[in-house]
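From the pipeline queue, job 12 of 40. The input is one protein chain; the requested action is below.

Action: predict structure.
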Amino acid sequence: MLAAQGKLAFERGEDQGGCVGCHGIAPGKIRFPALLTWKTPIQDVGTDGREDDLLHSTVQTGALEGEEIPAVTKKLLPVDTAFNVLATSVIGSILQSPFKIVADAARPVRPTMALTPRTQELTAAFQARSTTAVAPSFPYESRVLAGIWAAAPYLHNGSVPTLAELLKPAADRVASFQVGPAYDIVNVGLAAQQTRFNTTMDTTDWAARNSGNSRCGHEFGAQLSPSDKQALLEYLKTL
């Protein structure tokens, strides 16, 4: 069975074009008190760096100035990093009570959720970029590939239309493609011909890695044989 052959390719080591090292389902860190997670490595694989750059740029915090989550985040400065604003906003949203305190006496008043030891665990989801790197590094978190067949276009910025294109060297990937609902079941992703919308995605190469639309990076699997690539695609359809 072709999918079974593809599973073998998926489970090869990274140096042999396999995927399991970054995208396999493996136990991750246990969160408080006993929440299981998947292992999702964070690393720079040469993909577009603009999203990471923007998160670490500085912004005016406005109405959030001075906000903090005790023992978890620091007070936001008048000008702070977008990353810190995001961390404060997201963690605060998770911790707040689903019941809002309102002035209407006819509605129940509930207190906000008290901080617990689990609060500290939320900070692990926000890891700021290292400031000691010799060269710029743009790390992103990998993902398990369950349902990957339905997640086109690919890479974190949607710059690659199909999984077949993603298995090519970046220099060989299409520079532009149409966006729409038509699906390519062979190459797994957006069909080359779309009729519903008149939208085209134009991408850039390594020379413009920080364009926001760069198709560069993540060349794992590019060295696989055509037959192994075909088998791998069939396996990815089963996830």
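Job complete. Residues 98-119 have pLDDT under 50 and may be disordered.
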